[in-house]
Specification:
Shape: globular
Largest sheet: 7 strands, parallel
CATH superfamily: NAD(P)-binding Rossmann-like Domain
Structural class: alpha/beta
CATH class: Alpha Beta
CATH architecture: 3-Layer(aba) Sandwich
Strand order of the largest sheet: 3-2-1-4-5-7-10
Number of helices: 8
CATH topology: Rossmann fold
Helix content: 25-40%
Radius of gyration: 19 Å
Number of strands: 11
Length: 267
Amino acid sequence: MQKSISILGSGWLGLPLAKRLQSDFDAVNISTRTEDKLTQLSSAGLQPFVIDIENITDNIQPFLQSNTLIINITSKNVTGFKNLLKEIEISSVKEILLVSSTSVYPSKNGLCQESQQLDMNSHPWLIIEQLFSQNKHFKTTIIRFSGLIGGKRHPGRFFASGKAIKFADAGVNLIHITDCLAIIGIIIKRHIFPELLNACADTHPSKAQFYTLNALALGFNKPNLSEDHLQSNKIISNEKLKKRLNYQFTHGDLLQLNPLKDYDLTV
């Protein structure tokens, strides 16, 4: 069993990830931005720290006392990440898994692959990715996750308010939390660093088909479809990830997800 691992971020993905990794590490350090969450995290057997990259304090170094750091926060504050990097450089961290997003790819027709050259000024996450991938103090693997579903994120509720689905004939790019956790687990266990990987389900049903199916399953009305015409059909490729990790998605076919069993339906 390894000594410790640090996870920056304890939200929808970070907390279940921390619980999953507890069996592989003596200690799991995890961050929250508010003191209100400390008791919950501690009660789960985790080592909690209040960390905000926009206001870094002295407790950052104890938090970083691990060989591996997983960064899973929504902040796009480049200055904050630069300040975080300064702290990581003087820590024991040698491997970083940076959770990014496939939103870095432009909205245009075609297949989106990791080898594409992207405009660095088009998305702050591209700048953040580069800050980590070019740093020589550690090795970084970047995972670009597509839209996250599972747990309490049920796609049947996404348009329950009556909001219309834009470009309803476009294909969805989504990934279930079960696959998110499994993919991260493989990377950590096999020490797959450095790398750049897209993470998205195999299938891309239309927004209209997918969200309607899930809404009706929960007893909601059929979602409204906007009358706009399809401007792009961006499809995220997961081929590199499947080959690199020898991975088969648990929920590769999004239409095979059970709307009543593969999500947390509690309010």
